C-alpha cells in the first residue's frame, strides 16, 4: 500500500462536469491506499478462502455494453471469472477484478482488514497529495512525446472508432502504464473504482438532486472513456451508480487507516465507525459531514 500523510487539498474542478463543482478545501487525515486496483488473483484468494458469491453470481447476470445499440445489457453467466461471458476469454490474474458490486467490494475489504477509500481520499491520492491543477494523476497530457497513451482509455471517438493502439480493448494488467510520482498506478482509466461514500452534490452546488443512500461514488474512469464523451479519467471526475450494480469496466481498490496498518490487522473486520476527517473550509468551515 502507499502512505499519504494527509493535509489540506482542493477537491473538485470548476472546469469539469456539473457534479465536480464548486471546488472546496478538504482536510484529509493520514491513510494508506492500495497502489493498484484489486486484481483477479487477489479476489480469487478471497473467494477460495470464504466461499463468497458475488451479487452478479447470485443474480445470474451482469452488465456488458452493446456498442451497436449504445446500451448496457444484462448478460447471463457473466461473472468476475468470465468478464465477457461464457464464450469469452476467462479473467486474467493480473488484471483488475470486474463485475463486482459495491457490496462485493465491501466484503473483500472487510476480509482483507481494509476498507474502501472515501472519494476525497481517492482524489487526494490521484493528485499525489498535492494541490495541483493537473488534469490527470500523471500530468496534463494523455500521451507522451511519442504519442503513446499513458492510461488504458478509449483511443478514438466513442463509440464508433477505437484504434486499440495500446493493444488493450478492455482491461489491462495493473501497472501496465507505469506509476505516478507517489507510486500509484491505474489512477485514470482501466476500470472505474468504487468508493465508500454515497453520492451527493458538493457544498454550494444547488443542482436538483435527491440523495439516495444506495447510490455510491465511482472514480477514475475506464477503458471506455474518451476525451469527448466521458473524460472520466481526470482526477476530479466522479460518477455514481447503485450499490448492487456490476459491469465489465468497474472494480475497486482498498484503503486503510494508519493505526490499523501499524497493527497489521490481517483478515480482521475493520472498524465500522471509521470516519474521514474532512472539513469544508470555504464557506462551511464548521461543517464536518463524514
Automatic annotation (TrEMBL):
UniProt cross-references to Gene3D superfamilies, sorted A to Z: paralog of FGE (formylglycine-generating enzyme) (3.90.1580.10)
Superkingdom per UniProt: Bacteria
Transmembrane segments: none
Residue ranges annotated for the Sulfatase-modifying factor enzyme-like domain, each copy included: 1-255
GO molecular function terms noted in the UniProt entry: formylglycine-generating oxidase activity
SUPFAM superfamilies assigned to the protein according to its UniProt record, in alphabetical order: C-type lectin-like (SSF56436)
Protein name, per record: Sulfatase modifying factor 1 (C-alpha-formyglycine-generating enzyme 1)
Organism: Fulvivirga imtechensis AK7
Lineage: Bacteria, Pseudomonadati, Bacteroidota, Cytophagia, Cytophagales
Amino acid at each position: 500500500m502507499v502512505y499519504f500523510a494527509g493535509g489540506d487539498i482542493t477537491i473538485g474542478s470548476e472546469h469539469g462536469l456539473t457534479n465536480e463543482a464548486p471546488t472546496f478545501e478538504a482536510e484529509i487525515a493520514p491513510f494508506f491506499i492500495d497502489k493498484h486496483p484489486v486484481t483477479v488473483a487477489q479476489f480469487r484468494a478471497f473467494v477460495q478462502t470464504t466461499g463468497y458469491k458475488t451479487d452478479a453470481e447470485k443474480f445470474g447476470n451482469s452488465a456488458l455494453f452493446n456498442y451497436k445499440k449504445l446500451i448496457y445489457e444484462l448478460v447471463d453467466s457473466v461473472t468476475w471469472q468470465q468478464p465477457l461471458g461464457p464464450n469469452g476469454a476467462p479473467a486474467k490474474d493480473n488484471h483488475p477484478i470486474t463485475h463486482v458490486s459495491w457490496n462485493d467490494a465491501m466484503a473483500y475489504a472487510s476480509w482483507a482488514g481494509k476498507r474502501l477509500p472515501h472519494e476525497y481520499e481517492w482524489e487526494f491520492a490521484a493528485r499525489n497529495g498535492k494541490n495541483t491543477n493537473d488534469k490527470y494523476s500523471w500530468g496534463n497530457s494523455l500521451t507522451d512525446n511519442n504519442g503513446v497513451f499513458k492510461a488504458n482509455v478509449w483511443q478514438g471517438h466513442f463509440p464508433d472508432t477505437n484504434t486499440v493502439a495500446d493493444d488493450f480493448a478492455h482491461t489491462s494488467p495493473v501497472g501496465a502504464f507505469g506509476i505516478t510520482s507517489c507510486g500509484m498506478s491505474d489512477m485514470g482509466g482501466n476500470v472505474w473504482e468504487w468508493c465508500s461514500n454515497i453520492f451527493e452534490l458538493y457544498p454550494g452546488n444547488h443542482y436538483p438532486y435527491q440523495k439516495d443512500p444506495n447510490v455510491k461514488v465511482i472514480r477514475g474512469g475506464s477503458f471506455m472513456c474518451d476525451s469527448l464523451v466521458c473524460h472520466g479519467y481526470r482526477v476530479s471526475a466522479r460518477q455514481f451508480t447503485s450499490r448492487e450494480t456490476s459491469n465489465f469496466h468497474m472494480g475497486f481498490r482498498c484503503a486503510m487507516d494508519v493505526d490499523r496498518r501499524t497493527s497489521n490487522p490481517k483478515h480482521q473486520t475493520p472498524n465500522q465507525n471509521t470516519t474521514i476527517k474532512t472539513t469544508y473550509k470555504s464557506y462551511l468551515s464548521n461543517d464536518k459531514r463524514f
